[in-house]
């Protein structure tokens, strides 16, 4: 690489959308029998992928090969796993294991040498069980979980490169990401929140779409308004109580 290729292109910002997270399925009795650890109840895959889904695929994300800018993804598992630090040096950047418990996975993304960028560190809480309507995780019986299907837990993010080198900028522009669909194409949730029963539910393949940003902003704005309204209610209540306290003090002083 020439020195000109390494020169930073000042004032230029370019990003690449990714998702990271996991999908998990409950194991049948027959599948558990062949495992060395019979207490393992789930098979799961943790991954770093491009955000867009492949057409007609049952996989979340992964439409693009990210190896043009990602050299390695390192997954740090719970220390009870053999060799808990796992390096994945080629796509797909994912790891499949079995287990029984949820824990935090550290994800380290190392970029190709042309990037001249430091690795970044992400954290993902491994999700094996569905969420309930209250937002809490519920552990259904294994036979119900098997009928339910996959539990998906994914986070959308954008890796931003500021002032990239000329060579790296060329590399990125030669590989534009697959655009996200504008709207929801499949009415499939990421989890089973707001469902009263798992018996009649069925998992599926969720999908990120560009409208999710607007929807999330609207949800945040609605939450902000509720917080402000609650603050105003409490402030009014406090003022009324202070007035009542003053009135009682005056009555006590005059008696």
TrEMBL record:
PROSITE patterns: YEATS. The lineage of its organism: Eukaryota, Fungi, Dikarya, Basidiomycota, Agaricomycotina. The keyword Cell membrane does not apply. Belongs to the YAF9 family. It comes from Coprinopsis marcescibilis (Agaric fungus). One of its GO terms (biological process) is regulation of DNA-templated transcription. The coiled-coil domain is required for assembly into the NuA4 complex. GO terms for cellular component: cytoplasm; Swr1 complex. Keywords: Activator, Chromatin regulator, Coiled coil, Cytoplasm, DNA damage, DNA repair, Nucleus, Transcription, Transcription regulation. This is Protein AF-9 homolog. Residues 217-251 form a coiled coil. It is found in: Nucleus; Cytoplasm. Component of the SWR1 complex which mediates the ATP-dependent exchange of histone H2A for an H2A variant leading to transcriptional regulation of selected genes by chromatin remodeling. Component of the NuA4 histone acetyltransferase complex which is involved in transcriptional activation of selected genes principally by acetylation of nucleosomal histones H4 and H2A. The NuA4 complex is also involved in DNA repair. Yaf9 may also be required for viability in conditions in which the structural integrity of the spindle is compromised. Component of the SWR1 chromatin-remodeling complex and of the NuA4 histone acetyltransferase complex. Residues 8-175 form the YEATS domain. InterPro entries: YEAST_sf, YEATS, YEATS_dom.
């Amino acid at each position: 690489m020439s020195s000109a290729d390494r020169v930073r292109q000042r004032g230029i910002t370019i990003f690449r959308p990714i998702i990271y997270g996991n999908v998990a399925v409950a194991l049948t009795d027959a599948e558990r029998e062949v495992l060395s650890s019979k207490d393992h109840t789930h098979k799961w895959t943790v991954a770093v992928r491009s955000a867009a889904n492949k057409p007609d695929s049952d996989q979340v994300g992964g439409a693009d090969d990210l190896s043009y800018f990602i050299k390695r993804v390192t997954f740090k598992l719970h220390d009870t796993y053999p060799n808990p630090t796992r390096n994945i040096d080629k796509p797909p950047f994912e790891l499949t294991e079995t287990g029984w418990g949820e824990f935090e996975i550290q994800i380290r993304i190392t970029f190709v040498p042309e990037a001249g960028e430091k690795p970044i560190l992400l954290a993902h809480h491994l999700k094996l069980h569905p969420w309930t309507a209250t937002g809490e995780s519920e552990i259904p019986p294994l036979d119900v979980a098997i009928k339910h299907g996959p539990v998906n837990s994914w986070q959308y993010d954008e890796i931003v490169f500021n002032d990239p080198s000329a060579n790296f900028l060329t590399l990125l522009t030669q590989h534009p990401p697959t655009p996200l669909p504008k709207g929801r194409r499949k009415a499939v949730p990421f989890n089973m929140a707001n469902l009263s029963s798992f018996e009649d539910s069925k998992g599926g393949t969720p999908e990120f779409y560009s409208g999710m940003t607007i929807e999330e902003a609207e949800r945040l704005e609605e939450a902000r308004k509720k917080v402000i309204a609650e603050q105003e209610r409490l402030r009014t209540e406090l003022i009324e109580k202070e007035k009542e306290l003053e009135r009682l003090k005056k009555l006590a002083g005059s008696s």
